[in-house]
Amino acid sequence: MKRLVSALLFVLVAIDAVLFLLPITLVYIIGAAVSIIFFFEALIFTMRAMPHVLGLNVFILLSGYALYSLWWLLIRHRKIKIDEISKFIWGGLVVGGLITVFIIFEGVWSRTGSLTSQKDMAYLIFAGGPLMLTLTLLAIMLPRKRL
């Protein structure tokens, strides 16, 4: 029975990673490259950094920190206990959760007041997927803490 539960949890984590984490990581890589290009283009042509470009770069860096922490947790969740997660990784997971809340409430909820359209639901899934994966991994690791 324990092997069946372990196998089902492994499949759930693998599906979550493929459906949510991998596409978001690819979008992040493309977005980071475009953001870096815009930043240096603004510096070269205007000789000053635009505030909105700096804000975008800070958001990109924080998103990268959150993605790094989630990939780290995904790779090591079977080998470590929840107590062994460093504060640096916990910080990235918290930042990722805050980014998710920001994207959902600022990007979707404030625009429509509800989550009714298919575009809003796709936004919710795209933004909430990494948070769901984080919570799934932590839930898998939690029983090992008590042993």
Outline the structure in words:
The chain has helices at residues 2-46, 51-76, 87-112, 118-146. The two termini are 18 Å apart. It is built from four helices and no strands. 86% of the residues lie in helices and 0% in strands. The chain has one domain.
Give the SSE map.
Blueprint: H1 2-46, H2 51-76, H3 87-112, H4 118-146
Helix pairs in contact: 1-2, 1-4, 2-3, 2-4, 3-4
Give a concise summary.
This protein is mainly alpha-helical and 147 residues long. The protein is built from 4 helices and no strands. Helix 1 packs across helix 4 and helix 3 runs antiparallel to helix 4.
Q: Top keywords for this entry?
A:
single chain, 147 residues, mainly alpha, globular
